[in-house]
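Supplementary Note 3. Input sequence used for the single-chain structure prediction.
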Amino acid sequence: MKFRHVALACSSEENADKFYKSLLGCQKSGPKILTSSLSSKIFNIDSELTIFDYKNEYVHFEIFMYNRHRGNERSIDHVCLQVTDMGSFLERCKSLNVMVIQVPKGGSVITFAGDDDGNLFEIKQA
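The predicted structure, written as discrete structure tokens, is reproduced below.
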């Protein structure tokens, strides 16, 4: 596996800039938009989300602009992992009864796996 990025939520762009850009010295790019349709399917949040990337040569933070009041919503926070064989990974998930969320996006599929404590892991194939 290869570590890809960590996705976290911040309540404002100013808060994100202060920590990730000013304190940690990451370069900022974006914004990107996650449509409300995808946001609803992945995180059970029925609204469009703005995302900024903060990164340097060693780390990549994907920061979602979202005020974290929680009800029945899944967390936006997740770790992205890269695997060499998606099919084999999904078979292991099935054999261990691990939750998998797969959502079509364009011509591809976004894949997430969840642990028993509700943490989400986005899975990408190398």
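The longest helix spans residues 13-23. The radius of gyration is 15 Å.
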